[in-house]
Design the sequence.
């Protein structure tokens, strides 16, 4: 005999002992019958009447079993569905997450309940529409938005990604979920790339089919940061000059590495880099750099070293910060120094430089 078939013995047992176990067993069997192909119109009405009784049951366990049993059914009466949706979290969440016949209007009404567990259940639904994804980003807390991003089946428009990036620019959790999403538009990757940790940048390279220029840029940034960490450990001019010499000989002494160094307060590295790139003696380099009143001489030195003009503002900002706070790379707080350099770059335009927003973002990306 099929164990899922409801028998007269089941009804008798339920009437004699209406325990949670017997009620749950009855619900499971009725649901299997309701969801089957052989149900009659009379049987359909009877099953729905029993569901209406069970959805009001005082025992939450019975309602949990009912919810779990009905979540994979199709087109159950809406009054039953909304009784389950408006029930306690343990009853409602499985049903909200899996019941396929909910409309977008139904989902919005659930999101408007301001119950974060129910909101997350909506965000976890399979094949969530673009409209609901946008609504979640606009109206729901960060935790729910994070759940949405981790739902790879959810449809998310590029404009919705833009809203996420703008709204949660400082959230490491959201950035991580974006990076770990199965597919991510290149435009989104470009927007968040420079604010990611090295670990997340590496994951982007390994897990996403990135354009060559973006993948190369990530790899180069990781290399540059690693190189400057080595430079921090050196104290003598001789050690730093040897490091710069090695980089120069292997064609790894790039303009971005050199500019990153000065913006991090690594003055000695920057000095010796200019020595090799411009073929200028160290005494002359220092003489020019420390006389910041003669900007044209610094500009000429940077040109000789083939530093792009777009990077000049970052160099001048860093040199001015060094001058203002008498920066000592062995004692000063590097993160504070970098922050001051970024502030200078952001205000550089008012000092007579024509600096576009793209230039500013690029310069900051070389530092951070």
Sequence:
């Amino acid at each position: 005999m099929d164990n899922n078939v409801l028998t007269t013995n089941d009804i008798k047992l339920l009437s004699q002992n209406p325990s949670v176990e017997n009620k749950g067993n009855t619900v499971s069997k009725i649901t299997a019958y309701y969801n089957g192909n052989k149900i009659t119109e009379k049987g359909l009405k009877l099953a729905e009447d029993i569901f209406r009784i069970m959805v009001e049951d005082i025992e939450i366990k019975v309602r949990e079993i009912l919810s779990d049993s009905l979540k994979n059914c199709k087109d159950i009466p809406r009054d039953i569905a909304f009784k389950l949706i408006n029930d306690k979290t343990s009853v409602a969440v499985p049903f909200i997450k899996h019941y396929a016949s909910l409309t977008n209007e139904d989902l919005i009404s659930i999101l408007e309940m301001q119950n974060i567990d129910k909101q997350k259940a909506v965000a976890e639904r399979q094949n969530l529409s673009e409209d609901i994804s946008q609504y979640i980003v606009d109206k729901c807390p960060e935790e729910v938005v994070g759940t949405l991003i981790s739902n790879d089946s959810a449809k998310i428009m590029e404009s919705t990604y833009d809203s996420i990036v703008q709204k949660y620019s400082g959230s490491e959790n959201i950035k991580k979920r974006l990076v770990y999403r199965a597919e991510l538009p290149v435009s989104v990757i470009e927007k968040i790339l420079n604010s990611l940790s090295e670990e997340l940048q590496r994951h982007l390279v390994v897990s996403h089919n990135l354009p060559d220029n973006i993948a190369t840029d990530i790899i180069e940034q990781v290399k540059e940061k690693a190189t400057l960490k080595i430079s921090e450990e050196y104290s003598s001019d001789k050690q730093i000059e040897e490091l710069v010499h090695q980089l120069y000989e292997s064609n790894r002494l790039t303009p971005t590495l050199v500019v990153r160094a000065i913006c991090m307060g690594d003055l000695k590295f920057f000095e010796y880099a200019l020595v090799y790139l411009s073929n200028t003696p160290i005494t002359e380099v220092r003489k020019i750099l420390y006389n910041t009143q003669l900007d044209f001489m610094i500009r000429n030195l940077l040109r000789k070293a083939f530093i792009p003009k777009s990077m000049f503002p970052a160099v001048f900002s860093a040199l001015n910060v060094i001058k203002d706070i008498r920066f000592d790379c062995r004692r000063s707080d590097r993160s504070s120094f970098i922050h001051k350099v970024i502030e200078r770059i952001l205000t550089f335009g008012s000092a007579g430089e024509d600096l576009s927003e793209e230039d500013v973002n690029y310069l900051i990306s070389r530092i951070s």
In short: Residues 327-331 have pLDDT under 50 and may be disordered. The first helix runs from residue 8 to 16. The CA atoms of residues 44 and 130 lie 35 Å apart.
